[in-house]
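Bench notes, afternoon.
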Amino acid sequence: MTSNSTYTMNLPSYTVGADAYSSVARVTQRFGTSAALIGGHHAMAAAEGRLREAIEGTPLTLTCSENYGEQATHAHAAHLAALPQVKAADMIFGMGGGRAIDTCKEVAAILDKPLFSFPTVASNCAPVTAIAVFYKDDGSPDKYFIPPMPPVHSFIDTDVISQSPDDYFWAGIGDAFSKEPEVELSSRDLTLPNTPLMGRALSHACGRPLFDHSVEALADKRAGRNSYELSQVVLDIIVSTGLVSNMTTNMDGPDPYYFNSTTAHAFYNAYSGMGDRAASHLHGEVVSFGVMVLRAFDARPDELRAQAEKNHELGLPVTLSALDCSEADLDGIVERAQTTNEWGRAPYGYTPERFRQAILDADAFGRALESGDDDAQAAALEAVTAHKATEKAQRKL
């Protein structure tokens, strides 16, 4: 990372609050007067009317309201970009969750139009990031799409989010837990230039709000209360982690880098190849167990305990069985993990054996935690500590 090449860093802006859509016409006015609205059925049922009411009487109009296609695939993005009513718009408005908004990132890039995001759930940082996760028709991961810039602005209506399905927020908490430890691990021991250095520093603002506020925020979400705690966790899930993602990802040019994710998402991406069993579990739900795997992999017993206890308190998975997974599935998971973009991102030996053992260690501690067996918990943490000796030996090689 010694290149002096020129690069552009685009950071998104956002409006957050119960009346966020009132700013849409003013914020977007310099980009044109028409927008194609693309999103999910449920998302637009919840928020399209609210948006239309907010822009009524302004110069801004919607050329269409299109479903994004139920799955984020490159074929769906290409289909949407070819629609005359989408091509005719000055802007693209992406409304919904991560898959809908990620689809819109490719649509906007194909048509070279500005994208504005309207998250209706707080499940991940897609509304503000310059990275899009795509899938194949069978639900397995496809290649990431890296747009030239993130959405120009995100309109985060906390009333809409407070009324969204609880499970997406619950899983969003699980996904956000990964940002700080993944960025720290993947960039550890490196002297970073300005932008990823800022991203690494900002990642430390992602974990604490989740440990401090997530339990109360989830209770408020389930009660439909738009509270301070809810807003803090929503901003953590969407904005804090999103800014970190933008600053720690640069996969183009002569000096690329990627510090955005490592072991937790290697586990998720490999797990997602398990077919129907994987499809029945949400992204962040799986990632939350992946964070436990990361802590075991990185020989951090105290952090493993803290993460497992918080997962347990929130009802997130702490065992393989909670994900309809068993030790018999690990050969496939370990094999698939080695093909992911996240594999190998650590400053020490990143072996299949260590990855597999970390999964087993995380599961062992989770089972001991659920049983309330203090001796079994201590034994599981002792096994995690043993990784330290292995790491020191590997660093000397």
